[in-house]
Amino acid sequence: MESPPPAISLDDLVLRRFDGEADLPELFQVIEESLEHLRPWMPWVAEHSRATTADFLARHAERWADGADFSYAVVLDGAIVGVCSLFRREETPDGGREIGYWLHPAATGRGVATRAVRALVAAAFRLPGVDHVEVVHDPANRASGAVPARLGFTEHLRRPAERLAPAETGEEQVWRLTRRQAERTARGDG
């Protein structure tokens, strides 16, 4: 199973594979400081604990090895400020991958998520068989939707979804970027 690189350096921003237990204290602290910011949109926040963070990190190597989930620590100026993942869901069509992301509130509004997602899109299209990448979010989460819009994704569809977090509307907005669209954008063809 081919995988993206374990680290992607973007000047002051680095996406890197998690280092298991070594990252536990810092990741747990970042989540703790981000709870109110994440709670409206991220259902897993309701179950947040040191144990669930440790479990996420423990499963990381296995999920990376089987190609199910390539989760990266988003590191800005040497500190973890969030997570950005390239993964495959059961409902993701063949040839597709999804990108998910969240940031500490102090790292938002600075282009960090956009740069991280752009890097993971490029990594995704270097994997064999990937012909499109999707970003899925609740349409009320305008900050999450701004990222794919800036990167040339197009709104692919809206679908009903179970409301799992307090601010969710019961709908998901799915943005898609195909390999062909990404190549045209890279060439400047729009």
From TrEMBL:
Residues 160-190 are annotated as: Disordered. Gene3D superfamilies: 3.40.630.30. GO terms for cellular component: cytoplasm. It comes from the Bacteria. Residues 13-180 form the N-acetyltransferase domain. It holds the Pfam family Acetyltransf_3. InterPro entries: Acyl_CoA_acyltransferase, GNAT_dom, Ribosomal_N-acetyltransferase. GO terms for molecular function: protein N-terminal-serine acetyltransferase activity; protein-N-terminal-alanine acetyltransferase activity. Residues 180-190 have a biased composition (Basic and acidic residues). SUPFAM superfamilies: Acyl-CoA N-acyltransferases (Nat). PANTHER family: ACETYLTRANSFERASE, RIBOSOMAL-PROTEIN-SERINE ACETYLTRANSFERASE. This is N-acetyltransferase. The lineage of its organism: Bacteria, Bacillati, Actinomycetota, Actinomycetes, Kitasatosporales.
